[in-house]
Design a protein that fits this description.
One of its GO terms (biological process) is methylation. The chain is 45% helix and 14% strand. It has 993 residues and is α+β, with helices and mostly antiparallel strands. The longest helix has 50 residues.
């Protein structure tokens, strides 16, 4: 179908929505050369008409078209209100998996609304005649095939950072003129809310922007005009000819605008151009607080804690237990429906039999009873289902969350959002079950806060208000009015741990407690808080908190007490990671004595007052959730935030470094600058003469990093001037020196490290340890520090290891085989750390704690080596261990040969001598096999894990198990048994020390 044909057909049509929608969409598919739903998904699993989700408007309805991870599409009749269609689509988007695009059409217009998480929403409008434009057609096609191309470039975080920064600068200017900081804070929050209200349509006709425009021209009238507007918003009424809703809430009670100069108004008009409807209030609160509080202004450009980090506490404390409760209700509802379905099926069969058979009166009565029983059961089940849904919704509406150090309200807002999302899901689930639509009732009254700082306390209220309004509008619900802003008395401005009269303060009862209490080290409490306050703390919490404990521990103790006396069920709080030890840990010991820690992250990055710190995230209380530590299930979490694995029942944190392993495992060298160059360039330099007659080979070495092992060699070389060459001596190696001068020197001079500044032509670290360890070896073992698979390879001694490689300074296949066994792999996964979800190998916790087989430890294998007839290399060890050493070496030698043949099939490659003698040949692909060879990587090999590889590893595991003295089936041990045995060996060797 051509654009002209499509336009002509749909300009002329007078069909109603229901009869035209599917045909219009099919024609669009023809126009865009896209398959229709039935052509590629006849079962409607990922692409279909009338997706089975009921609208929350009360009537049965469907998303007219749905394509998973692409769009939800709603049609209306010609010239109908497409905004209503968008609102409807928004409402049931969660039931459609929250597609990134929400599209509405009346056959004459198509409007694409973006709905990507974390971005400022965008809108693309196409009229029929626009479809002649190839660019517009391409945009529409992307909606079907590549919706990511429509992702807005501006994120809500970026927008919010810009808004907060500009507002903070304005607040600072006003304070510098001598205005009271409290007045500045209140006035700026009023202005902020006006921007937001205008962009969501609560202030009509660009009212506030026009007010500022006129105010810039007639500056003397601006204070009175603002006063008039704020007074009108406080009570409702008319501002000029424009009706203004009743906002109330206390924000506009005091209408005392500050005097502004023309530059201030210009700044406000610039701010008005931002899309305030899309700001992220959970970020805005923190950033805005920095601008309003004179004590925090230096943090204006600093980082902030992202919402995802906060959700690590909100999810396990607030949402996961509630979701578990709802799943229990869903299971009960499913059982009711199954029972009804069985009775109805029985009734249908009885009726079918009755229709084909002459029945006696008694038989007919039985059929009637079966029908009545089914009907009664269905009615009863409907009532029970309705009660279960209604009761759970009431549970959510009555659920209370308190943050006793709420700051600007980011924890409260995210908890409220999560609670509202869950309520919305339950409402949609209830509608699917045929129950009437209900209006969401979870709101600001569900969250409580305590905050000492006046700026933050008021801002927390604004943050919660904005978040509530955004959620309602973004989910297609109208706002409650009269007033729009309910009076929020939920934030108490007071001290959470000491009353003004010196008594211990009471916290209001709540279901759960969350928050980020203030970080202040125990040694600084007296100097920062003052002698009197410090003494009061000691008096109130005597016997509960040590005087040397950090300030944050008082919030932990208060939360523990709330749980113990039944005024809360669970808590999730942030602390510096020092809570795991010393005087601080005593509060966690008290928590473990009276309740349980059920979720914790022991050592995580965090932003506190604009600075990066390391923290512990700790959830404790009465819950049925299974313990999770650092994202992994455990049997129990201890007060030092370590845990026991569910299967091993062994505390692996008790494993200690073994003396016999020391010095063998070293991290590669940090370059700290662009010292690496492509191999082709290095080879050019190798052929260049130097004035002093020496070759550039002196300072050039092949170089490898983690990617060179996990993928294929990048053929990079390293410029390495060692640790002794002066700048003048280095300059004699002309081409490498010029390269470092151009690419490294400026970067080094900007560093704080004086040594790196001074010796800018040298690598970032001297590398004495690794140079010394590798010097006597012809080859060494290397593994990527971070990798999906724990891969070990051989590298020639002349290949310089990057800091992303972990080096084991051994040249024998026996050590290589033990490291590549399943036993060491399991140990490395548990004892190492991780980068995101990718395991990280560490020389200390992983290698140095690993118990090698007796007689084959690094201390035993550090001497002479011997080459076997097969080519395998073994260490010179005591006679009783030689058979095991040979068996392991032969097995891993076969494994390595298999891998090398897979990586570099002889018929696919050519071997080319290096340009300098003594170096390994270069492996180059034959042109016709280049693309295939590129895919031959160790990562891909271990992803595929062919049978030949699995068999080779099994033979290696059997040989290593024999060296441990384990039975023949040791290769089949599960992870738990492997870890138990290895831990026992580690502890036994440590005890012998």
């Amino acid at each position: 179908m051509t654009p002209d044909q499509f336009i002509a057909k749909w300009q002329a049509t007078t069909l109603k929505e229901r009869s035209a929608a599917q045909e219009h969409f099919i024609d669009l598919c023809r126009l865009l050369n896209e398959p229709t739903p039935a052509e590629i998904d006849p079962n409607g699993e990922f692409y279909c008409f009338e997706r089975g989700a009921k609208k929350t408007t009360g009537s049965d309805g469907w998303a007219d078209v749905w394509k998973r991870n692409c769009f939800g599409w709603e049609y209306k009749g010609k010239r109908k209100n497409l905004n209503e269609a968008f609102v409807q689509l928004h409402r049931y988007a969660p039931a459609l998996g929250n597609p990134p695009l929400l599209i509405v059409s009346d056959m004459e217009h198509i409007i694409i609304h973006t709905a990507f998480n974390g971005t400022v929403p965008d809108k693309h409008q196409l009229a029929l005649n626009d479809l002649r434009d190839p660019a517009q057609l391409r945009l529409l096609k992307w909606a079907f095939t590549e919706p990511e191309r429509l992702r807005p470039t501006l994120t809500t975080a970026e927008l919010t950072e810009k808004a907060a920064r500009q507002f903070g600068e304005l607040a600072q200017t006003l304070c510098e003129r001598g205005h009271d900081t409290t007045q500045v804070a209140h006035f700026c929050q009023q202005i902020l809310f006006c921007f937001f209200a205008e962009d969501i349509g609560l202030l009509p006709n660009q009212l506030f922007s026009k007010l500022l425009e006129i105010g810039q021209q007639r500056l003397e009238h601006l204070p009175a005009t603002l006063t008039n507007l704020f007074n009108t918003m406080a009570t409702g009424g008319f501002f000029g000819n424009d009706p203004v809703d009743w906002f109330n809430g206390g924000l506009f009670d005091a209408a005392t605008p500050l005097p502004l100069n023309r530059a201030d108004v210009v700044t406000l008009r610039e701010l008005a151009q931002l899309n305030w409807s899309a700001i992220e209030p959970s970020i805005l609160g923190t950033l805005f607080e920095r601008g309003l509080d004179p004590n925090q202004r230096e943090q204006l450009g600093a980082h902030y804690t992202d919402p995802a980090s906060i959700m690590r506490l909100v999810n396990p404390v607030v949402l996961e237990p509630l979701r578990a409760e709802w799943r229990t209700q869903q299971t009960a509802i499913a059982a009711l429906l199954e029972k009804v379905a069985g009775l109805k099926s029985k009734a249908d069969k009885a009726i079918a039999t009755a229709n084909t058979t002459a029945l006696t009166t008694e038989a007919a009565n039985k059929v009637g009873k079966v029908r009545t029983d089914a009907s009664n059961a269905e009615a009863k089940a409907k009532k029970q289902i309705e009660k279960r849904c209604r009761d759970f919704l009431m549970r959510l509406q009555n659920f209370r969350i308190i943050d006793p150090a709420c700051g600007s309200g980011n924890f409260l807002l995210l908890a409220l959002r999560g609670l509202k999302d869950l309520e919305h899901e339950v409402i949609l689930d209830a509608e699917r079950l045929g129950l009437p639509a209900s209006f969401p009732k979870v709101g600001p009254e569900n969250v409580l806060g305590i905050e000492l700082n006046a700026y933050a306390a008021e801002l927390a209220r604004v943050t919660v208000w904005i978040g509530e309004i955004q959620w309602m509008l973004n989910h297609g619900f109208s706002l409650a009015k009269n007033p729009i802003l309910k009076k929020i008395n939920i934030i108490d401005q007071r001290d959470a741990v000491v009353n003004a009269d010196g008594a211990e303060p009471h916290w209001p009862a709540a279901d759960v407690i969350v928050g980020n209490p203030p970080f202040l080290g125990g040694s600084k409490k007296r100097s920062v808080l003052g002698d009197d306050y410090f003494s009061t703390l000691e008096t109130i919490y005597a016997g509960r908190i040590s005087g040397g404990a950090d300030f944050v521990t008082y919030w932990f103790e208060k939360a523990r007490m709330q749980i113990e006396i039944g005024k809360a069920k669970a808590a999730g709080l942030v602390s510096t990671n020092s809570i795991r030890g010393g005087a601080n840990r005593k509060v966690l010991e008290r928590i473990c004595a009276t309740t349980t820690i059920f979720n914790a992250w022991s050592d995580e990055p965090w932003i506190n007052s604009g600075a990066a710190v390391r923290v512990s995230l700790i959830c404790f209380g009465n819950t049925k959730l299974k313990p999770v530590l650092n994202g992994e299930a455990v049997a129990e979490i201890y007060a030092d935030l370590t845990g026991i694995n569910n299967e091993t029942k062994a505390d692996l944190t008790t494993a200690k470094s073994l003396k016999e392993n020391s010095g063998a495992c070293i991290r590669g060298l940090a370059k700290v600058g662009q010292f690496d160059v492509p191999g082709d360039l290095a080879r050019q330099w190798l052929n260049l003469p130097n004035a002093h007659g020496k070759s550039n080979l002196d300072v050039l070495k092949p170089w490898a990093n983690g990617m060179d092992i996990a993928r294929r060699s990048s053929d990079n070389w390293l410029i390495d001037y060692g640790n002794s060459l002066s700048e003048n001596q280095a300059a004699f190696y002309e081409a490498p020196f010029e390269y470092v001068l151009e690419h490294v020197k400026a970067q080094r001079e900007a560093q704080r490290d004086e040594k790196r500044k001074t010796y800018w032509w040298r690598l970032g670290r001297s590398g004495i340890e690794i140079r010394t360890a590798l010097n006597p070896l012809a080859r060494y073992i290397a593994t990527p520090m971070v990798a999906k698979h724990r891969l070990f390879v051989w590298l020639d001694k002349r290949v310089f290891p990057d800091q992303q490689l972990i080096v084991i300074a051994r040249a024998d296949d026996t050590t290589f085989g033990i490291l590549h066994s399943h036993f060491h792999e399991i140990w490395a996964l548990r004892m190492g750390t991780s980068l995101g979800a990718t395991p990280r190998y560490t020389p200390t916790t992983t290698f140095e704690t690993f118990p090698f087989p007796i007689g084959l430890t690094p201390a035993d294998t550090g001497g002479a080596i011997e080459t076997l007839d097969s080519g395998a290399v073994i260490p010179t060890v005591a006679a009783e261990y030689q058979d095991n050493a040979k068996a392991i070496a032969e097995a891993v030698f076969q494994l390595n040969q298999l891998r090398e043949e897979w990586l570099n099939p002889p018929e696919w490659i050519e071997r080319q001598p290096e340009v300098v003698a003594g170096y390994l040949d270069r492996i180059l692909p034959k042109p016709e096999y280049a693309a295939k060879l590129k895919k031959r990587t160790l990562t891909n090999l271990y992803n595929e894990h062919p049978a030949s590889l699995a068999n080779a590893h099994r033979q290696l595991d059997l040989a290593v198990a024999a060296a441990y003295g384990w039975e023949n089936d040791a290769a089949e041990f599960n992870e738990a048994e492997i870890l138990q045995r290895l831990l026992a060996l580690n502890l036994a060797r440590n005890s012998r020390k």
